[in-house]
Design brief:
Chain lengths: 270, 331
């Protein structure tokens, strides 16, 4: 999971709970990691959020797996009480016509609300609408390289008609995020489980990698080889036999032919 | 349970939209200008969305009734389809919808009255011969009936228009809406089947073959015309015995005079759809079968396709006359 968070005080509970460690290589943003998660502290505003999301997309260390992205932070809201967490089910922008509708696959206990990303702090609280300063830019960048179901925005209401944003303190922000941390992390875990379901099978990738090394395959032969290995996995054919067959072949062309002939016998539904 | 209802702003006050809002009071209601803003964006994953699709309420503008491919009919000469709903409750692995649509959300076009106007106009245009209207191209005609009320709206209309025929194509056993009415001679309830073993592997969430057969027999006994759709024909081990058993079960107790037609169709798919489906389900055996690309479509190798269709045809002709058997072919 990739967390995109604007402020250190919002990030702190996540960093502590997941035991993320700060990366000391020179990067334009503060990045924290463990084996399974990354978190970037973007700074406030659309440009910062877009830049940091792009940076995180490019610096992922788990490139073979489908990635998930979660923007966590505080927001104002026209209806919800402070300290209420919600998922954004539509994300508009005060200066951009594009509206995003993150598909909601997971049944969570969070409230669902529309969210508008503003260029400046907002004091006009429209009914039923949340306000932040990053989500739209974050979504706009993340959705260019990741499936939309796996990009989500969770906000905790920090201000509303009755409580102006001017009185928000960093400690209160940390407390709000802390209050919803178990739900936020459970939601993140469910997103990761969905990602796993559509990620390429690592064993198949490994087998393809091994097979490619056995002959000097051309690019188009590699494409055919990968496809045949994929099919062999669909029919549960033994890995050992496939590798032997490729090894015994005298040329890349023969290897593809032999593999194809071998798999052909199984190409029928049981 | 529908958790999110997206709606086009222009349908917000439509009585059918208001009914949905009150029937699902806990669902989040999200407005949009046009359903395509939610349905069409690239970078959506059909497979993931199928786990929990949302509902989009929209109004179908423009042409609502379209001609069907020339070799897809069941006896009529003027054949059309219309889609009041995009996407299906079920998750059949061979279904072209998962390759055609970018999203698995249900899009329900609630301007039924305008659909009916177009159907009636089309039927009037060709009043010298009966017109056929097929409703199950982009959805299952009955599976979501309790939510959509589609059949409930259209049957009374068709009852007053006897030379317009309606085919309801389904895998559902949700036939209450039909059982509660007098049968109409111009409405055919067409059930799709594959053998039980294939159904279990490929038709996720679909009622069992035996439950569907029972539902079909019940409707036939009540006087409804029924159709049987063996489409797509799927190549499999023990092909002959499995299909023979299926046909025996289908025709064993079916009153012959209630059978309107049987249609046969090979598994075929536009190449672009197939590529997308294969990418969505790379582990799927069906897509690793003996398939071939011919021009812009994917189907079984010609020898297999011909053999399987011929075999089904001769088995079916043991039960029905050739006038009732139709083969759907790619044009």
């Amino acid at each position: 999971m990739n967390f995109i968070v604007a402020l250190s005080c919002e990030a702190k509970p996540i960093i502590n709970e997941l035991r993320l460690t700060k990366q000391f290589s020179p990067t334009p943003f503060e990045v924290f990691r463990n084996d399974f998660h990354q978190l970037v502290v973007t700074g406030i505003g659309k440009v910062a959020a877009a830049a940091a999301t792009g940076f995180l997309l490019g610096s992922s260390t788990r490139k073979q797996e489908v990635q998930t992205y979660l923007n966590v932070g505080i927001a104002g809201h026209g209806t919800l009480q402070t300290n209420t967490a919600f998922i954004a089910n539509s994300i508009s922008d005060d200066q951009d016509k594009a509206i995003f509708y993150p598909p909601q696959i997971i049944d969570s206990d969070f409230e669902l609300s529309r969210l508008c990303t503003c260029s400046h702090p907002n004091q006009k609280y429209e009914k039923g609408l949340g306000f932040d300063m990053e989500a739209h830019a974050f979504y706009s960048i993340a959705s260019r390289s990741c499936t939309r179901e796996l990009i989500q925005v969770v906000k905790v209401v920090s201000d509303n008609e009755g409580q102006s944003f001017e009185y928000i303190r960093p400690t209160t922000v940390t407390e709000y995020i802390c209050n919803h941390l178990p739900s936020i992390l459970a939601f993140a875990q469910e997103l990761d489980a969905l990602a796993k379901e559509i990620s390429p099978d690592l064993e198949t990738l490994g087998l393809q990698e091994r097979a490619r090394k056995l002959h000097p395959f051309s690019q188009s032969q590699i494409f055919q080889l990968d496809r045949l290995i994929n099919h062999s996995r669909s029919f549960d054919l033994e890995e050992k036999h496939l590798i032997e067959l490729i090894e015994k072949s005298n040329s890349p062309k023969e290897a593809i032919y032999n593999l194809n002939t071998f798999i052909d016998q199984s190409r029928i539904l049981s | 349970m529908i958790k999110n209802i997206y709606f086009e702003e222009k349908v917000e006050n439509h009585n059918r939209a208001q009914e949905f809002f009150s029937r699902f009071p806990k669902a989040a209601k999200i407005s949009c200008n046009h359903f395509k803003e939610v349905f069409n964006p690239s970078g959506q994953n059909f497979r993931l969305q199928k786990k929990n699709p949302s509902l989009i309420l929209a109004s179908q503008d423009g042409k609502k009734v379209h001609p069907i491919p020339s070799k897809y009919g069941v006896g009529g000469t003027s054949n059309f389809y219309f889609s009041h709903l995009f996407n299906c409750l079920y998750d059949c692995r061979y279904c072209f919808l998962q390759g055609m649509f970018p999203s698995a959300h249900y899009v329900l076009f609630i301007n039924y009255e305008e659909f009916w106007d177009d159907i009636r106009n089309k039927a009037d245009e060709v009043s010298n011969s009966p017109s056929w209207f097929f409703s199950g191209y982009d959805c299952d005609s009955l599976a979501l009936e309790s939510t959509t009320g589609f059949v409930d709206f259209f049957l009374p209309k068709f009852s007053k228009f006897p030379h317009a025929f309606l085919e309801l194509r389904t895998k559902s056993v949700n036939t209450r809406v039909l059982k509660n009415r007098e049968p109409l001679p111009n409405v055919i309830v067409a059930f799709s089947f594959t053998p039980e073993e294939i159904s279990r592997q490929l038709e996720h969430g679909v009622p069992s073959v035996s439950a569907r057969i029972k539902a079909m027999h019940q409707l036939a006994t009540l006087g409804w015309y029924v159709g049987i759709r063996i489409d797509p024909v799927i190549d499999c081990q023990e092909f002959e015995s499995r299909y023979a058993l299926l046909f025996h079960q289908l025709f064993d107790k079916l009153p012959q005079d209630s059978l309107h037609s049987v249609s046969l169709g090979a598994f075929r798919m536009p190449y672009g759809f197939f590529k997308k489906m294969d990418k969505l389900y790379p582990e799927e055996n069906l897509f690793a079968g003996k398939l071939t690309k011919n021009k812009n479509s994917v189907s079984y190798e010609l020898e297999i396709e011909t053999k399987r269709l011929d075999s089904c045809r001769s088995m079916l002709l043991e039960y029905i006359s050739s006038e009732k058997l139709f083969t759907c072919e790619m044009s």
